[in-house]
Amino acid sequence: MSPIILITGANSGIGLAMTNALLEKGARIAALDLSQENLPLPICSCFAVT
Questions:
Q1: Where do runs of H (alpha helix) occur along 1-50?
Q2: How many CB atoms lie within 10 A of CB 12?
């Protein structure tokens, strides 16, 4: 089982770029952000932290 990478600020900027790049390589991601507006589709079932 491969590790899960935790990315904060995954909705924009460097966090979004890192999330997309790692997903393209097949990584398992736990993405966190205050909004889920721009989160990539493979992780769209995640919820926004309020």
A1: 13-24
A2: 13
- Work out the average pLDDT over 20-38: 83
Between 50 and 7, where is the model more confident?
A: 7
**Is 46 contained in some domain?**
no
Q: How far is CA 21 from the centre of its chain?
A: 10
Tokens of 32: 């966190």
Residue 23: which domain range?
4-34
Residue 34 has pLDDT above 60, yes or no: yes
- If one counts the domains in the chain, the total is 1
Residue 50 lies in a domain: no
